[in-house]
Specification:
Mean pLDDT: 83
Helix content: 40-55%
Low-confidence stretches: none
Radius of gyration: 15 Å
Largest sheet: 2 strands, antiparallel
Number of domains: 1
Order of helices and strands: HEHHE
Strand order of the largest sheet: 1-2
Shape: elongated
Strand content: 5-15%
Number of helices: 3
Number of strands: 2
Length: about 80
Amino acid sequence: MIKVIENSPGRWVVGIGSAPSSSGAETIARMTRLLWSGQTSRHGGSHPTRDETIAEARAAVHLAVALLNFFIDGIFIRQPPEA
């Protein structure tokens, strides 16, 4: 998902700001990458991991909830291809 957003930021719209721009998609991609790389133990076993602190776990939950709500509520959507 991160690569899809990063490879086509202009195809995504974030429902905040005066006009659609790739900066919103870039922000969502950065948030997603931060969650992905910051929580190494979430799947375990595939790479060396470390135990996260309670503060890191709480931050990850808040970040994940925000991202999930952006998708569920249609705040972050992919524009259909132009015909």
